[in-house]
Write a structure and sequence with these properties.
Length: 312
């Protein structure tokens, strides 16, 4: 799929049809399909035609026979309308296939992520790739929809799309374009449905990405909380190690021969470590409470400002 904007341009006795998958020139009695050089090099010889051309020719024959069988009053559908319907049908078919593939990838990815407790790096990479593919598809489907809408908004262009009548010297009057209007509106509905499907897939991926971000943030907060607890424990151990280091110096303190000095020092070191632990926990609780109060004050101020703005 080519990432280029679609357009349907009406020119003098011709219609320029350009979509992400098909590029062609429609005349009153012929159709010219333009293919890229890469597509031409894939053919073994000049007599071999591409799959797109074969499908378009088959559609033209099928639509032509259907229209011929459906006319009971002797009316004839112009050749350019049969070709235009065939090209639009092929483009919508390409987009529908891509939409189905992307929807299946999204469903498979989300079901795989929901069934596992740990989201791997492969899932994240797959989510990025699927999201990029959906964005490209959404741009393509939207460009096709906008191209059809642009033609529908120009009555003069729809009038000049009757190439057979113009070449025969019978141009249509303004407002006498029900056939082409009905044709374009039909495929406008198809393209709108495809854009809605792509938008829903992107919305699901964005919701999953936000949920994944919340999970990662929660995990990071738990790790930070564990790190703070370990730091408090290290602080308590360091505070308890200070008296032990003082007593470990080779200086006379006259406590070496005291009968219960060892037990008193041990209890004192334990009390110092306990007090340091409680101080650290108190500081952690206070910091958390202040943070929550700040968030509550911010929410309250926002609510107060919004209520003041609506005050009569």
């Amino acid at each position: 799929m080519h990432d280029l904007p679609a357009s349907i341009l009406v020119r003098y006795q011709s219609i320029l049809f350009c979509t992400p998958n098909i590029r062609a020139i429609i005349k009153a009695d012929k159709l010219v399909i333009l293919e890229s050089l890469e597509a031409e090099t894939e053919h073994k010889d000049d007599s071999e035609t591409s799959i797109t051309v074969q499908n378009v020719v088959s559609d033209i024959q099928h639509i032509g026979s259907r229209v011929h069988d459906g006319h009971d009053n002797g009316g004839v559908t112009p050749f350019e309308f049969i070709v235009l319907e065939s090209l639009l049908s092929q483009e919508i078919h390409h987009l529908s296939q891509t939409s189905s593939e992307l929807t299946d990838r999204v469903n498979t990815l989300l079901s795989s992520m929901s069934s596992q407790d740990v989201i791997s790096t492969a899932h994240m990479q797959e989510m990025i790739e699927v999201k990029d593919a959906n964005e490209i598809f959404l741009r393509a489907a939207t460009s096709v929809k906008d191209a059809i809408s642009e033609v529908l908004s120009e009555p003069d262009d729809m009038r000049r799309m009757y190439l057979t009548g113009i070449s025969a010297g019978r141009p249509r009057e303004y407002g006498d374009d029900d056939e082409i209007e009905l044709l374009l509106e039909t495929y406008l509905k198809y393209s709108t449905s495809l854009t809605l499907t792509a938008s829903r897939n992107l919305q699901r991926l964005n919701s999953a990405s936000q949920h994944l971000t919340l999970l990662l943030s929660s995990t990071r907060n738990r790790l930070l909380h564990l790190e703070i607890r370990l730091e408090i424990a290290m602080l308590a151990m360091s505070a308890g190690a200070l008296p032990a280091a003082i007593f470990g110096m080779n200086l006379t303190s006259h406590l070496e021969e005291h009968p219960w000095a060892f037990w008193a020092a041990t209890v004192g070191i334990g009390m110092i470590a306990f007090i340091a632990t409680q101080i650290g926990r108190y500081g952690l609780r206070k910091a958390r409470r202040v943070k929550m109060e700040q968030a509550g004050l911010l929410a309250g101020s926002k609510h107060e400002i919004s209520s003041l703005t609506h005050y009569p």
